[in-house]
């Protein structure tokens, strides 16, 4: 049995510590998961909090195959026995933002969505939204680089809006149909003063730097790639412009900020786009970025959440 390389110690060193057995031995005895393969890589996380196996007992024993991997620095694979799970220690920190710059990234509150995703009960976007809550603060400026039908835009607005009116969501989509759908959802869901915090632009996400005011700190840039749900499936995000958009996001994101990407590989150009994204992210310097993905192994067409955290 190999030792899983889960980082349990902080700092910028790519140093590894051991993974521990999960929870109580009596419920990991059941060999429901055969040949589970996890992919671990060095991260500068000091601790990962919460109950990663906190679902009800029936679901706990019937999980499928999944992959937790890190894109920067490069990762490596090794098999994990069906009785081996990983246990997350608790963290005394209550704020992602307060600890992120010190190399500590607790994920308390994300566990339900993560476990739900692993057991097929939650969507990739649910995981992304849960992570956003631990990055975005009231009054922040954020970017929805692919508005689609507006659900991400609305979720972001609810994270940044406060009585000060300082929070801003800059949303963009190249399809007018998408912006109309987003505007309609915002009108139905928000008070007029809240909706004023959202600025929508009919433009390609590769040009996001053109709409962000100079010297503005951007906490989060969100991408939900692929085609517009309910729209023309032939109109999809393109590899070339997505890479340009990621380069722009890397330039504007502030330290302690996050670039969140949900990649859909089910459409004809999706796999090509994902491979290009993965190659781009893998080349980011490890001293400045922590990048990871969550990928199903026996569902090759399932959406893939990717997170790029800037130290």
TrEMBL record:
Mind telling me which InterPro entries this protein's record contains? MnmM_MeTrfase (IPR010719), SAM-dependent_MTases_sf (IPR029063)
Stored Pfam families: rRNA_methylase (PF06962)
Q: Which domain of life is it from?
A: Eukaryota
Residues passing through the membrane, by range:
none
Positions in coiled-coil regions: none
Matching CDD domains: AdoMet_MTases (cd02440)
State the name under which the record lists this protein.
rRNA methylase YtqB
Please report the organism this UniProt entry assigns to the protein: Trapa natans
């Amino acid at each position: 049995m190999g030792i899983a390389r889960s980082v349990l110690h902080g700092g910028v060193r790519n140093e590894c510590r051991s993974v521990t057995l999960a929870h109580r031995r009596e419920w990991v005895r059941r060999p429901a998961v055969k040949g589970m393969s996890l992919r671990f890589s060095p991260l500068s996380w000091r601790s990962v909090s919460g109950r990663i196996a906190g679902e009800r007992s029936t679901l706990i024993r019937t999980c499928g195959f999944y992959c937790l991997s890190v894109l920067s620095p490069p990762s490596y694979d090794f098999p994990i026995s069906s009785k081996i799970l990983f246990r997350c220690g608790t963290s005394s920190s209550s704020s992602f933002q307060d600890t992120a710059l010190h190399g500590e990234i607790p994920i308390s509150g994300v566990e339900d969505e993560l476990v739900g995703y692993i057991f097929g009960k939650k969507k990739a976007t649910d995981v992304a939204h849960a992570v956003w809550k631990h990055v975005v603060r009231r009054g922040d400026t954020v970017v929805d680089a692919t508005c689609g039908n507006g659900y991400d835009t609305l979720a972001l607005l609810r994270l940044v809006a406060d009585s000060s009116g300082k929070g801003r969501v800059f949303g963009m989509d190249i399809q007018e149909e998408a912006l109309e759908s987003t505007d309609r959802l915002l009108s139905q869901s928000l008070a007029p003063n809240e909706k004023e915090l959202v600025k929508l632009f009919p433009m390609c996400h590769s040009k996001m730097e053109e709409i962000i005011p100079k010297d503005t700190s951007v906490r989060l840039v969100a991408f939900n790639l692929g085609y517009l749900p309910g729209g023309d499936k032939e109109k999809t995000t393109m590899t070339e412009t997505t890479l340009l958009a990621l380069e722009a996001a890397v330039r504007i994101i502030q330290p302690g900020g996050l670039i969140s990407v949900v990649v859909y590989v089910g459409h004809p150009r999706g796999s090509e786009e994902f491979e290009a994204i993965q190659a781009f992210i893998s080349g980011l310097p490890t001293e400045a970025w922590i990048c990871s993905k969550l990928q199903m192994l026996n569902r090759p067409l399932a959406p893939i959440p990717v997170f790029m955290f800037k130290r």
